[in-house]
Amino acid sequence: NDKVRKVQKVRVVCWINTCNANLETKAKAIKETWGKRCDVLLFVADQTNNSFPTIGFNTTEGKLRMVPRIFKAFDYVYRHNLDDGDWFLRSDDDAYVIMENLRYMLTSYNAAEKWYLGGAYDFGPKQGFNSGGASFVLSKAALSALYMRAAGECTNEYKTVGRDDIELGRCLYHLGVNISDTRDILNGIKFQGMDSISEYTISFHHLTIDELYTFEMLLYQIRPYGVVNKLHDLNKSNKMTPVS
């Protein structure tokens, strides 16, 4: 199937926000489940752990102290993994991402253009922001713009204490990298959607370790006998022209 082959060619580098205390629990669960479907899987924590491994930036733990880490993590990915992917995903260690559905959605976008895709909230920066925990992706062009033009400026200008996803959204807005509507043609929600959920939903957040493994089992190990899943094209055509 040509559509399936096109989806499989989409390259995604994933970095997971975690902490050293969660390495043998939540982070391990992601490594053993959906994380193995990333083209590159990285774990970012407070301290480097060479045996797991993790990338550490000596940042302070705490939900409202993650702003320096998100910029340092994307800086690391830009310098070390830019050529490994077309898209760059940030997720939390209590989220489950259906990578096939993410890749399918991304076939409607051009990674050479500036895209910032995820589950949007309409507070914080003027354009809103995409939730980091429920996962979001930057195109290669958006990641390159972030570090060729404004990373240092953003870390100096915006708050270092606060929500990292809000401050990143503020920086991207400064660059003209806008949020896009990721709902499908039936208005189904793809990121952390429980109401009006898309048939090709992408992520779920705030999951327990057992739930991470349960999602894996239900999606990849169990099949209802006699039920054949047909492929439906539910992607919207892109109406927004990103800033080049």
UniProtKB/TrEMBL annotation:
Sequence ranges assigned to domain Fringe-like glycosyltransferase in this UniProt record: 11-182
GO MF annotation terms: glycoprotein-N-acetylgalactosamine 3-beta-galactosyltransferase activity; nucleotide binding
Bilayer topology term: Single-pass type II membrane protein
EC identifiers of the protein: 2.4.1.122
Gene Ontology cellular component terms for the protein in this record: membrane
Subcellular location: Membrane
Pathway assigned to this chain's UniProt record: Protein modification; protein glycosylation
Keywords: Glycosyltransferase, Membrane, Nucleotide-binding, Signal-anchor, Transferase, Transmembrane, Transmembrane helix
Entry similarity comment: Belongs to the glycosyltransferase 31 family. Beta3-Gal-T subfamily.
The protein's name in its UniProt record: N-acetylgalactosaminide beta-1,3-galactosyltransferase
Species per Swiss-Prot/TrEMBL record: Paralvinella palmiformis
Lineage: Eukaryota, Metazoa, Spiralia, Lophotrochozoa, Annelida
